[in-house]
Amino acid sequence: MEFLGFHFSYIVIHHTFTAASSTQTARSRCELSQKCWTLQNEPSTHGTAFPAQTVDDIGLDIWPASEVLCRFLTNHPALATRATSVLELGAGVGLPGLLAALLGEALLMLTDYDPQVLEVLQCNIDSNSLSDRGRVHQVNWKTWRGEPDFGHFELVLGADLLYASALVKDFVEVLKHVLAPEGVFLMAHQIRRSILLDPKTRLPRLEDFDAPLELFQRIITDAGLHMREQLVIKPEKTDSTSDSEFRVLAVCWTETTLNNMPL
Ligand SMILES: C[S@@+](CC[C@H](N)C(=O)[O-])C[C@H]1O[C@@H](n2cnc3c(N)ncnc32)[C@H](O)[C@@H]1O
């Protein structure tokens, strides 16, 4: 079926969501080009992936940055259609990775460290008929150092991964192992700044910078990687104590690869 030029009409995604202050499980139809989420509100058919006591696991939610990354991929489909291999790190329920695989014909590897998240990822691969070219692999940034080796990837994706400074150094080590010499790492990041008490006004305000993102930029540069901001989405309304700014960043081994990205 053709859908706005794509050969698929929607992505089926098993995930959790919070409604009326309780966490529920859902199987959603995700029509990205309309930013339309049709929550079918049916209990997940993949019962074992969602035991009641763990439904608040962060990887089982769809985070807004992953929608930002999906929109970016939808607007620049050549990034996915030209790639022969796609890897998503800290995939959660795997929406951007699934989209990239469905846009083109790449081999797909979805990774996370949480065993329950991995089960849901497998379910989402199967639900989108990607079992023949989609795989799930456990990768914990804190412990994985390239063994077992599953190769280099032309397109590496990540959404909302840098939410704590303690994760950043290990994350970049993994990235260095998996990014192909001419590969692109695309990351959607939600800016989160700490709240501090302004010494002059004595009122709470946001810090001027996002600490994990600053650290990431420093470590990336020290590792010899190159980074470029591709998209900044500013919040419609700003408030002195909350953030909803998003950035999409591209990271490559060379400046030439960054310049030649099919945008
Ligand atoms: C905020 S969630 C984002 C999930 C998904 N990318 C999205 O945007 O919907 C962060 C993800 O990173 C994963 N994660 C956290 N620490 C990790 C680690 N040490 N190794 C691998 N994955 C990790 C979590 O399991 C979770 O899926």
How many structural domains in the coordinates? 1
Q: How would you describe the oligomerization state of the chains in this entry?
A: single chain
Label the CATH architecture: 3-Layer(aba) Sandwich
Mean pLDDT: 85
Report on this structure.
This protein is α/β, with parallel strands linked by helices. It has helices at residues 64-75, 78-81, 95-103, 115-127, 165-178, 211-222, 255-259, and strands at 11-19, 22-31, 36-39, 85-88, 107-112, 134-138, 153-159, 179-190, 195-197, 204-206, 226-233, 246-252. The chain has 7 helices and 12 strands. Helix 4 links the parallel strand 5 (107-112) and strand 6 (134-138). Mean pLDDT is 85; it is low at 43-55. S-adenosylmethionine (SAM) binds next to helix 1.
How would the blueprint of this fold be written?
Blueprint: E1 11-19, E2 22-31, E3 36-39, H1 64-75, H2 78-81, E4 85-88, H3 95-103, E5 107-112, H4 115-127, E6 134-138, E7 153-159, H5 165-178, E8 179-190, E9 195-197, E10 204-206, H6 211-222, E11 226-233, E12 246-252, H7 255-259
Parallel strand pairs: 4-5, 4-7, 5-6, 7-8
Antiparallel strand pairs: 1-2, 2-3, 8-12, 9-10, 11-12
